[in-house]
From TrEMBL:
Cross-referenced SUPFAM superfamilies: Homeodomain-like, Regulatory protein AraC
Keyword Nuclease: no
A GO molecular-function descriptor: sequence-specific DNA binding
Keywords, ordered alphabetically: DNA-binding, Transcription, Transcription regulation
Protein name: Helix-turn-helix domain-containing protein
Organism: Flagellimonas hadalis
InterPro entries reported for this sequence: AraC-bd (IPR003313), Homeodomain-like_sf (IPR009057), HTH-like (IPR037923), HTH_AraC (IPR018060), RmlC-like_jellyroll (IPR014710), Tscrpt_reg_AraC-type_HTH (IPR020449)
């Protein structure tokens, strides 16, 4: 059993448009409480701006503070879960890749630094004039989404693009760009990460992914190292371990079954690798994590 992978069509809204969703955050929680009250992943891109409220947002076992001015970005496949200490308010939207890229065919989502790589931070804090401008854009977007004017979908796509441009400007000025993935290799890195997401259960060696990308393993490794200072093998191993963490914590599956699901016939080897990467055995990880959130 894996954690739920939610589809855009599962979400309830006051107004429906194919492949895109907008709402206030408070209404979103009320309308979709049963979908989002446990850890889950999605098959779409998500952006949320908090204007009030406090809590934590767990994204793939990283914990981030929720506070006014916090903006979160999630790519398809990332697991996440909210915990609120006080009533959250803000705006949320999500959309499929095709909704954006068909409207802006010359501009891929990966050109925005917050979507260019899973290695880049999923959180931005905005304040002052930037926050005021973003709140206005989100409000106008929601109003357009809830309306019925001609060219509505086209205008919503333009609003999303305008929001992303404002956020990319703030992101670039507030985060050390030297630590972010270079756009020069962003498209290839995104392709690699996409291939790993699809095939990591069975394919755990760089040669397979290099062949899929029509380059040599050596050249692929050089690009990955130059871009994010890791090896291709590290990226594959990190993805395997991340999935192991998700399954260990978010399912009740026996640990031996999780190892088998991930393509390991020898549980002892899986346990040794997991401990090498996380510092804990699978059982220690399950006990520590479930104990911390109980």
């Amino acid at each position: 059993m894996r954690i739920p992978d939610l589809k855009l069509t599962q979400f309830h809204s006051h107004t429906l448009i194919n492949q895109v969703y907008f709402n206030t955050f408070s209404d979103h929680v009320v309308l979709n409480h049963k979908l989002i009250n446990t850890p889950h992943t999605h098959d779409f891109f998500l952006c949320v701006l908090f204007t009030s409220g406090e809590g934590t947002h767990e994204i793939d076992f990283g914990t981030y503070a929720i506070r006014p001015g916090a903006v979160f970005f999630l790519r398809p496949g990332q697991s996440h879960f909210w915990k609120f200490k006080s009533q959250p308010e803000g705006f949320i939207f999500f959309h499929s890749r095709s909704f954006y890229e068909l409207n802006f065919s010359g501009h891929a989502l990966s050109s925005f630094p917050f979507y260019s790589s899973l290695q880049n931070p999923p959180l931005l804090h905005v304040h002052g004039i930037s926050l005021k401008k973003l709140k206005a854009l989100f409000k106008e977007s929601l109003s357009e989404y809830q309306g019925s004017e001609p060219y509505r979908e086209m205008k919503i796509a333009n609003f999303i693009n305008a929001i992303y441009i404002e956020l990319a400007r703030s992101y670039s000025s507030n985060i050390d760009m030297h630590q972010l993935v270079s756009y020069k290799y962003a498209a290839l890195l995104e392709q690699l990460q996409g291939l790993i997401n699809i095939h990591f259960y069975l394919e755990k060696f760089p040669k397979f992914y290099a062949n899929q990308l029509n380059i040599t393993p050596k050249h692929l490794n050089r690009i990955v190292r130059d871009t994010i200072n890791k090896t291709t093998q590290q990226l594959i191993s990190e993805r395997v371990i991340l999935e192991a963490q998700r399954l260990i914590v978010h399912t009740a599956d026996p640990l031996s079954q999780i190892a088998y699901t991930l393509g390991f016939s020898d549980y002892a080897y899986f346990s040794k690798l997991f401990k090498l990467k996380t510092g804990m055995s699978p059982m220690e990880f399950r006990n520590q994590y479930t104990g911390a959130i109980s």
